[in-house]
Specification:
Elements: H1 35-45, H2 51-65, E1 67-68, H3 82-88, E2 90-91, H4 93-106, E3 111-120, E4 136-147, E5 150-154, H5 160-166, E6 192-201, H6 207-214, H7 216-227
Length: 233
Amino acid sequence: MTDFSELNISGLPDRGGLDVNSCLKADVFMDFDHPEVQLKVKELTQGCESLWVKAKAIYYFVRDEIAYDFAPPIQGPENWQASVILQEGRGFCHQKSILQTALYRAVGIPSALTYHDVIDYPLLETRYKERIPDGVLPYHGLSLIFIDNTWIRQDATLDAGLCNRRGYCITDVERGKEVLLSEKTKSGKPHFKIQKEHGFFESFNPRFCDSLLANLSEWNQWRSFVKKEHLSM
C-alpha cells in the first residue's frame, strides 16, 4: 500500500475559508462538464425540487452505486477524473470523494474535499495488520457541501452492500448533520476513529496521485495482496 503518511499535505485550517465560487468550478479532476457526468446527474436529480433533495440523491448514488474498492487498478492521472471514476463504477476513498464532489458541483451545490487520518480497528484483527500494523489509514478522503449556509462533511465511502456483509454501520443522510464513518460496528465494537484532520481543499491535490504513480509497482503488489481476501477499509 502506498504510504500517504509520508506526505505533508495540508489544506485550509478552517472550512469557512473555502471560496464558494471556486467550489463550483470544473477542472481536470472535477470534470463534471463531461457528457457522461452531465447525463448521470440529470438522471439522478430528475424531479428533485430542492438542492437538498438533489444532494441526497447524489450521496446515495455515490455511496451504493460506486462500489468501494480497497485497491482499484491504477494506470495514470485519469483514474482520479470524475468521468473515469463514474465509468469504472468503483474506487477507493479519494476517487469516490472526487466523483461525489463533482456531481454536487454539477447541480450548483458548492463542494470541496477534506482528509482525515483514521484508525480502522477491524483491520487489526485481520491479515491486513502485517501491512497496516497500527490500523491507521492516512489521508482518508471525503467530500463536504455548502448548503443551508454552512459547510457539512459527507462521507460516502462504504457502500451499503459491503456494510451489510461486514456488519458495519451504514452512513445515512439527515439534513443539517454531518455524515462521517461510524465509530462503532453494528455489534458495538470500535470501528473508525479520526486521528488527525488535514484541512479543507477546493480541489483535488495532484500530489496524491503523483505519489501513488511514483510507487505504482508497490501499489500493484498491494492489489495482489488485497485480492487474496477482499476486505473494505
